[in-house]
Amino acid sequence: MLNNNLQQQVSLIFNEIYVGGKEATLGELLDIIESGARPRGGAENDGIPSIGAENIERFGVYDFSKDKYISEQFYSSLNRGKVYSGDVLLYKDGAYTGKVSMALDDFPHKVCAVNEHVFILRTQNNRLQFALYTLIARDDIRQKIYTLASSKAAQPGLNQNELRSVKILIPSESELVKFERFASPIMHQIARNANENRQLASLRDSLLPKLMGGEIDVSQVEI
């Protein structure tokens, strides 16, 4: 709930500057678009997390129970698809085309990659990553992306040129810079909250069986 409120604050401020922006395409904001891969034999039982559509929900929300993995050796061999803090992650094909998230401050993982179904998106010098995420997370932009992906085949899919062609509005440079300054502490707080929630959930999952099995005595605990 807290993270939802924080993201709503960011979205509201972005929407105020977005409506006054100039007509453009997403390609004018993007510098790098790349996807990853998994080995021919498929995902493995452990190793480096490999992010796919089964994981992506939105920034601060991630389904760890569906994590799949690649070996450290395969990860080291990747020329594309390694995830770094600040990367925007967009699911690019299938029924969930347009789902978007963001990697930040070890969320969702300190070291991870994406598979072939996810685009990593970066602005020039990563200067406008919070604006990029907030833009693509808008309902109208997500719908444009999904509609474009669905228009050519039974199975939705999006290539780099099509993604770059998506019509958007771009606020002025000064407004975008101000927005990044405003959004930065909030987005980092969302990442901290998400990481703390995961740690608490892990602690709960490890302690609950011991509590239920009588391994931990809480009879003397005062509430």
Describe the fold and architecture:
The protein has helices at residues 2-18, 72-77, 129-136, 139-150, 160-164, 173-212; strands at 22-25, 32-35, 48-51, 56-58, 61-62, 68-70, 88-91, 100-102, 113-114, 118-122, 167-170. It has 223 residues and is an alpha+beta fold. A four-stranded antiparallel beta sheet has the order 2-10-7-8, with helices on one face. A three-stranded mixed beta sheet has the order 6-3-9. A two-stranded antiparallel sheet has the order 1-11. A hairpin with an 8-residue loop joins β7 (88-91) and β8.
What would you say about this model in short?
The protein has 223 residues and is of the alpha+beta class. It has helices at residues 2-18, 72-77, 129-136, 139-150, 160-164, 173-212, and strands at residues 22-25, 32-35, 48-51, 56-58, 61-62, 68-70, 88-91, 100-102, 113-114, 118-122, 167-170.
